[in-house]
Amino acid sequence: MGLKLKNVLPMFMFLLLASTAKAQPAALDVTSAKYGGKPDSDITQALEKAWTDACASTTPSKIVVPKGTFKFVGTTFKGPCKAAIEFQVQGTLQAPVDGSQLPKDDTWIGFDHVDGLTLSGGGTFDGQGAQSWKNNDCNKNRECKSKHINLRFHFLTNSKILDVTSKDSKNFHVNLLKCEKVEIKGFTVSAPKESMNTDGIHIGRSTGISITDTTIGTGDDCISIGDGTKDITVTNVTCGPGHGIAIGSLGRYPEEEPVSGINIKKCTLTDTTNGVRIKTWPASPKDGTASDIHFEDITMVNVGNPILIDQEYCPWNECKKGVPSKVKISNVSFKNIKGTCTDPVAVKLVCAQGMPCENVELSDIDLKYTGNKGPITSVCSNVKPTINRVPQPLACATGAAAA
């Protein structure tokens, strides 16, 4: 009996190790002889071939871009695929400086209709956007062409974006549209404050997105949440420079969908023009809603306007300011928000005339003004917020109802 067991155990361990080895994703290294990619050269074709093989595989696979710098003209990696794919970038992918060399649409790297994608590896997606920012005149030229987005995800499901960096995008760094159950963790966005229209992460018409342990420094909103977005969790995000964390802008276009279930917690904003805000356009072409939006445990360090609802958002005078917004805002809370601000109006809740904001709460607000333009204050219109443990200057100078 003992002899038989002695003979069986090695065979059992061999089979166990063999089955474990089979479970590991096959590695498709773009610098292998099969794909022919080389550092400091264009690996567009090598990556496209590796994606084709990975997408056709019936077992999970892993595409590897090893350490080093690689040129990449850009493409959209399309699904659906037959199994999960890990896209591991260990080195740096560089976009062409000249936007005319990029794909005809406004996407440098895209992932479309993919289920079970993991984008990882600790590498960098370098959009080389400095020249594009200098030539960006969209604030005064309505005919300007949209610049390229570093990473665009369309119809992505059950996926993860882990420990990678988006650097110097020509336009938005990340755009998620119609995605479901996507985790973004350990992500970094790096761009100077003068980079125009470079939102860190923009989310539209997506559900079940979580963003955690992420650092964003850019020239526009660190995170912006567009219409049709539901069930979003943002935790432990460091923002700055940039324009803050924003819901919106909303109410500009006729086919917009409701926004609900947004939870933003334990974030730190430093040297941003705004803190946490909801912004909607006046003269909305259609009724809309934004509800169940909660900001909690937020630290502000030298932030312009820390707490803001702006239903008269109208950059570059592109709207009819005298016509109220039609976006109904309700069930919003700002809790435990502390730190310093560079504008004396620390709390500004400007809601739509004829459609007041409902069920707005301010609790445990402790903000100090660092400038010399007068005392710290708050301004509110078309809203009667519930106030808990908020000092009088911040407790809505007009229209407030104390609890």
From TrEMBL:
Keywords attached to this entry: Cell wall, Cell wall biogenesis/degradation, Glycosidase, Hydrolase, Secreted, Signal
Write out the annotated subcellular location. Secreted, Cell wall
Q: Main localization of the protein? A: secreted
Q: Which Pfam families match?
A: Glyco_hydro_28
Q: Which GO terms describe its biological process?
A: carbohydrate metabolic process; cell wall organization
Which GO-annotated molecular functions does the record name? polygalacturonase activity
Q: Which InterPro entries does the record associate with it? A: Glyco_hydro_28, PbH1, Pectin_lyas_fold, Pectin_lyase_fold/virulence
Coiled coil stretches, renumbered: none
Q: Would you indicate the residue range of the signal peptide?
A: 1-23
Query: Could you name the active-site residues?
Result: 243
Q: According to the lineage, what is the superkingdom?
A: Eukaryota
Q: Which family is annotated?
A: Belongs to the glycosyl hydrolase 28 family.
**Name under which the protein is recorded:** Exopolygalacturonase-like
Originating organism: Prunus avium
The lineage, from the top, is:
Eukaryota, Viridiplantae, Streptophyta, Embryophyta, Tracheophyta
Please name the gene that encodes this protein: LOC110755175
